[in-house]
Known about the structure:
By secondary structure, the chain is an alpha/beta fold. The chain has helices spanning 14-21, 34-46, 58-69, 83-86, 91-96, 113-118, 149-161, 173-180, 184-189, 214-226, 235-247, 252-269, 295-304, 327-341, and strands spanning 2-3, 51-55, 75-79, 99-103, 130-136, 165-170, 193-197, 208-212, 283-287, 307-308, 310-311, 316-320. The strands form three sheets. It has a seven-stranded mixed β-sheet with strand order 2-8-7-6-5-3-4, with helices on both faces. A three-stranded antiparallel β-sheet has the order 9-12-11, with helices on one face. Helix 1 (14-21) crosses helix 11 (235-247), helix 2 (34-46) packs parallel to helix 11 (235-247) and helix 3 crosses helix 10. It is globular and about 55 Å long.
Amino acid sequence: MIDLRSDTVTRPTPAMREAMFAAEVGDDVYGDDLTVNKLQERVAALFGKEAALFTPTGSLSNQLAIRSLVAPGEELLTETQSHIVRAELGAGAVFSGITTRTWPAKNGLLQAADPLAIASPDAGPYLVSTKAIAVENTHNFGGGTVQPISEIALLRDESSKLGLSMHLDGARIWNAHVASGVSFKEYGSHFDTVSVCFSKGLGAPVGSMMLGTHEVVENARRWRKRYGAGMRQIGILAAAVDYALDHNIERLAQDHQRARTIAEALSRISDAFIDPSSVQTNIVAIDVSHTSTSAGQLVSTLKDHGILAGAMGSKLLRFVTHMDFTDKELEQVLEILPKALGKL
Ligand SMILES: *Cc1c(COP(=O)(O)O)cnc(C)c1O
């Protein structure tokens, strides 16, 4: 099977496992794990932030971040298809009493004017007050789109005049950086809190991080424990991440190239499936709304042909390229697609 469901399906390489094997470890609940301590400093510095906290998932790092910015009964604004509102099972409402309002954006792409138009800071005693805005980069359900840095900077300027904070869901910020050339520090400079994932394109088996000020991170450390995610000898995981940061960032360009090649092949079958120029990173979103098939049916047809894809809606599915997807498999995919999709 050629597994293109997600970039989370990668397995640690022998070299990464060796780094894990050799890791110096300690009990992180006591702050004793030197490997994770060093990694937290490394990633905080990379994004120009004061401090960072390792978490088992990106959902948890998002949740720790937004709860530091938005009090119960207050409001977070985010895009309609963002991970925070669609894929974290209501965690912000369940655990933090956070209410959300959303704005829709084509391909998830940020235009600063959209959130600014619905923001209502200091809304008085009758209406919910907006406290923060979350931006996802790259945008997952938007098809791996890269947010324009000019819109991010504009939103930062205008929202800070309103006293609002900003959170970056940077699960795939690595892909955004490689595609745009914008530095991690510049991305970090526009946000109060940042969440990043190491278990996607970077190929680590587990791990995410939440970044912010010393005070916010210290407090998040308490909340992480309260959520039941205080961990012990996590240097083993941190060593894998350290290895991934050294070796697996620049190679993402290859994933992006392969995704573009798949998109071009799809558009040759029918240009209604996808506009290849919309594929900026490693996610290929396929629209089947012009056919009588559903995304679920097509996922099962593709599976019969040896390709695993992910359904994202009734008429939308996706391929995600990643480091375990080879050029040989790419060739096979290019052969299979006309057979599986040609008659739809
Ligand atoms: C994967 C992902 C996350 C975090 O997911 P976990 O499975 O909780 O690690 C957060 N945001 C986006 C945009 C993602 O794609």
